[in-house]
TrEMBL record:
Gene coding for it: rpe
Cofactor note: Binds 1 divalent metal cation per subunit.
Key words, A-Z: Carbohydrate metabolism, Isomerase, Metal-binding
Species annotation: Parafannyhessea umbonata
Coiled-coil segments: none
Residues the record lists as binding a divalent metal cation: H32, D34, H65, D174
Record's protein name: Ribulose-phosphate 3-epimerase
Amino acid sequence: NEDVLIAPSVLSADFTKLGAELDAVRDADLVHYDVMDGHFVPNLSYGTAILKQVKAATKLPLDVHLMVSNPEVQVPWFLEAGADIISFHLEAATHANRLCAQIREAGAQAAVALNPATPVCLLDSVIEDVDLVLVMTVNPGFGGQSFIPNSVQKVRKLSELCREHGVSPAIEVDGGIGVGNARDIVEAGANVLVAGSSVFKPQDRAQAIAGLRAQGRL
Ligand code: DX5
Ligand code: ZN
């Protein structure tokens, strides 16, 4: 069994000392970067200027989660800014397959994200074109929300869908993930854990990451 990847979400970091915050999570596997446009989700976060600074301040790959309407407009901006993985929401994309191809052609990994109310069967026509599926386990827009319990069942269904198609994209879960639910969701098939408040709230970020890792080791 492969180890899960831990992706701290900088949305929960202290932005007045972002360099130190990134340094404190250097034992993680990815940096999760949440882009909110105030339209697809009811909140604003940050864009490419800060992503470039984050890229200069960490060696970890950048996992960019676009919670934006019309992602086809913004994907090129984030490719240019150095994203290693780009997730766009299936609910917001009109030509998901084309957008995945565009991301891959630029040398990044293509991912689609699903809101909690979006069923996994909608992935049927795109699952063979993605490197990763991001399953939202809260309604996107804010850090620190509670994990939606039926997400475990949803990830199980997604694992089945992947098996049926003979593909094995990474399965990332995002929202309310902590030591209390990491094991269940990994057992269901998730192998990338986003963690905002459960990594940045504790004083010792390295220990928080190690704790999540231990839960993910089945
Ligand atoms: C929510 C974002 C998440 C968020 C996770 O809209 O997509 O990545 O930062 O934060 P926690 O882990 O605190 O729920
Ligand atoms: Zn996210």
